[in-house]
Amino acid sequence: MEAEKNIPQLNPDYIVQINGKSFVKYAGLLEEVEDRGGLTRLDVEVIQFPAEVNGNTAVCLAKVEMDGKFYSDIGEASIKTLNPQVADYLLSMASTRAKGRALRNAISVGICCLEEIRSFNDVVSEEPLPEKKPVQTKSTTQPTTQPPTQSPAKSKSSSTNTELKLITPAQEKAIIGMAKRQNIDPAKLCEEMFNAKLKMLPRQDASKVIEHLKATAS
Q1: Per-residue pLDDT, 75
Q2: Theoretical Cys-Cys bridge with 60: which of 20, 92, 94, 146, CB 3.0 to 4.6 Å?
Q3: Is the pTM for the entire model greater than 0.85?
């Protein structure tokens, strides 16, 4: 009940439960802000570039203006605080975290962004992969039909379909709207960034496109 009080009418599609705690995806904050009339201004400033002397830690400061009020917060990112798959994007993730925190302040959301935790990809794949059973070899001659070789393939296919969550209608609408305001072809942008069609983008990649459009608009 306490966690639900900190989620002010957010789209449940963007809420993830991890060990009994609620986390909101960055795209969910953007959708909520758009529903409330959008932002007047969003600025991001790099206040520390990653280097060996600071442990390769990037720090960004985000400033938000909404309804005549100003909100700000910082976001940091280092190899130690990121999943290895996104560890090459320190500045981008520090910017996303800073903007997410500033947006949460602006719309009074008391739960953390999913992008703020290290095991991002682990929690997106909510169902574990099926365990592979060891194949036992026998010296006796067996029929040529081998059902066990087909079973893992089916399991792999079904698990892939479960893990891959495509772009939501709200994300697609946000991308098209922000792209048109910047005279950018949204379909071409998605192909350039991820070599994929807009409607076939995974939700995680769609969030990165939205983040990119927000950055270029500021």
Answers
A1: 92
A2: 94
A3: no
